[in-house]
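Something for you to look into today, if you have time. What I am after is a single protein written out in full by you. I want to see for myself how the chain folds. Could you add the entry underneath, on a fresh line?
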Amino acid sequence: MSAAPLPGPLAGLAPLLEDYGYLAVAVLVLLDNCGVPAPGQTVLVLAAVYAGTGNLSLAAVIAIALAAAILGNSLGYLIGRTGGRAFVHRWGPYVLLTPARMARAEGFFDRHGGKVVTVARFVDGLRQTSGIIAGTTGMEARRFTVFNVLGAVLWVGVWSAFGYLAGSNIGAVYERAVRYQLWLLVALGAVLLALLLHQLVRRYRRARR
């Protein structure tokens, strides 16, 4: 392994990756994509750094992470598809998720679900839950699969290339990337807010007519 110091999150996972190698990548990435808050993205970056120093195979890291990401989000989709709606009907009113709001969520996913599933990979919180939400709202399975694979390819490709190329500069580069990820989250929130306002304006105009 390179002698360069690792930033906090990566340093904490280094012993796990050194002990379990590809298995750690597979398990953590899978959990991170199916509703469990696990450090899958962090271990992917660290594994790519290790690959850059010759300790792991970059091709193997990419293949394992890609399969785990696709499978994890697919498991989340199955959870949402088989149990999510029953959960919403049972507990939804307690968290203000009424049938009308659920119907609006389904309509939103009908129109924008593909974009959400693809982009969600890069946003903590959404990465863990987008598959479950897609299944719960009834997103068509074939359509979900296409965007699930697309999102996984982009996510694994970006972060594995990032770790591999960052190399000995990983500390400074990782901190900068985390900062940009926060801006991505803010931008996504702004887009969702704009879509919501657009829907409200359309309904207001329809009501006036």
Observations:
- The chain has one domain: 8-208.
- The chain has a mean pLDDT of 79.
- The radius of gyration is 19 Å.
- Helices lie at 8-20, 22-32, 40-52, 58-91, 99-120, 126-136, 141-166, 170-208.
